[in-house]
What we know:
Residues 79-147 form the Type II secretion system protein GspE N-terminal domain. The protein is an alpha/beta fold and 577 residues long. The protein has three domains: 6-140, Type II secretion system, protein E, N-terminal domain (GMP Synthetase, Chain A, domain 3, 2-Layer Sandwich); 177-304, Beta-Lactamase (2-Layer Sandwich), CATH 3.30.450.90; 313-469 and 516-552, Rossmann fold, CATH 3.40.50. The chain contains 22 helices and 18 strands. The protein has helices at 6-12, 18-31, 35-41, 47-58, 79-82, 85-91, 113-123, 134-172, 180-185, 188-195, 198-213, 249-259, 320-330, 347-358, 392-399, 415-426, 442-449, 454-460, 526-533, 538-547, 553-562, 568-574, and strands at 93-99, 102-107, 126-131, 216-224, 227-234, 237-241, 271-278, 283-293, 296-304, 335-340, 365-369, 380-383, 406-409, 430-435, 461-473, 479-481, 498-500, 512-523. The strands form four sheets. It has a seven-stranded mixed β-sheet with strand order 12-11-13-14-10-15-18, with helices on both faces. It has a six-stranded antiparallel β-sheet with strand order 6-5-4-9-8-7, covered by helices on one side. The protein has a three-stranded mixed β-sheet with strand order 1-2-3. α18 packs antiparallel against α19 (526-533).
Amino acid sequence: MAYLKLGEILxxxxxxTSEQLQKAIDVQKKEGGxxxxxxxxxxxxxxxxxxxxxxxxxxxxxYSSDNPELLKPKTGLGLKEIISSDFCHKNCVLPLSKHLNSxxxxxxxxxxxxxxxxxxxxxxxxxxxxxATRGSLQKAIADFHKTEAKEEGMASMLDxxxxxxxxxxxxDGPTIAVKKSxxxxxxxxxxxxxxxxxxxxxxxxxxxxxxxDDRASDIHIEPFDNKIYLRYRIDGKLYNIPPPAxxxxxxxxSRIKILSKLDIAEKRLPQDGTITAKLxxxxxxxRISTVPTIWGEKVVMRILDKAAVPLELAGLGFDAKQIxxxxxxxxxxxxLFFVTGPTGSGKSTTLYSAVNETVDPSKNIVTAEDPVEYKxxxxxxxxxxxxxxxxxxxxxxxxxxQDPDIIMVGExxxxxxxxxxxxxxxxxxxxxxxxxxxDAASAITRLVDIGVPHYLLTPSLxxxxxxxxxxxxxxxxxxxxxxxxGQHQGIVFxxxxxxxxxxxxxxxxxxxxxxLVVAEVLEVNDEIRVLIGNEATALxxxxxxxxxxxxxVFESGxxxxxxxxxxxxxxxxxxxx
Length: 577
């Protein structure tokens, strides 16, 4: 392959013209410097353009700033010990991976031969390079070593907490130990005192921060006889985490209660509260639930991190056809839109994303939720409180006097709520809500079962979306294989290769990283309306929808297996056929 000069590559990419190239060469002759830097100085290209072109020129992989995951070093390889933090920052170099005697590093200047020689000398490895812009590389280096400092800080916090516990045990005797006898005898003042100690404060911060960093959706703190279980729910599954010592249980629970403004002295009844955790760059809400068990209070903290959840339909996993249908339905001036599925299937997130799509200064949007999970700008959100009579139905009645355009109801649980939703949809409002059913067509049966007549559903329903959450295959380690129809219920995949989980450091050896929506979208057209009016069964409605092009949850899942996004086993696990 012929060697191309940088200017020729930029011309081939239609980034500059021949005249602009000649102008840059003239400037270079007068002022000196590299030609790429001259292009940038003249405003002809960006640093990103130049870096990509250099990568093409040298045959070196280029890592775009649009995909920061590529600049995330592999864990568990001791990369931080191979090249020091100071060297990385000073020379703008980041070690990414290591295999045998070969080390792959990201650099912003692959022509810096002195740097490459120094890397080879200090690491005693053969050096492979990838190229990235200086800005994206500096950010990746800062993130990499910030994580290192944070991990060291966490370890020291835990050490300090343990050391403090031993000191307190020696000073105060057995009063701090969480035995059945002493735990019950601790006074309110003592609980508050222990909860306010620095090691306990740091330990609770550590538990919450680590869970957020691990992408956990829930934190479980569970007391048992002379031990504590600490578990994080990640991608829908619970994983054991190394727990603190048993005698920390009471101070930890007390600290969480203080933060969430719960009654620290009440240990006999369940309690619910909220905490707002302030991180360096954002705030994260936590929903707290305590339940008394025979060994003490169990605490579950639901993490509601809007930054970790893309509240937009395009980022959840819907395919292009489904997104088009959803947006068409959401553009309707009136109607009833339901999201259905079992607990933990992502209904609330989809509902929030759908409402987010409708935000418009010309529209009045109101929501009734139990509780409010994500705070959205431009939307009037109400948290229902049944204990004082503020139910979904009560809120809905009030909303209808508030000149609404769009109404979101967290869940349709009873006839009164369902009836008001239908009435609102029939009187010119667009209403969104959720139901607990296994598929889309069953939502109609469910509404009829709670008392909504068919003749009201026929004109009001616009769309029903049924969904599940499937775990995404880890991009770093997913393993291709040839599908065998005999092992896959006779299913013939379009792709010659599909993928299965393997496990690596990036996914904590689970083979999966993140989740995506697998859905069936039932558009209520004229044919479906006739069937509803004729009191057709859920199966008849489902079959008609499939003839009109609807893919079931299982069928949508198989498409995602074909596309390499998830595994066949995962679709079988989450599907109900």
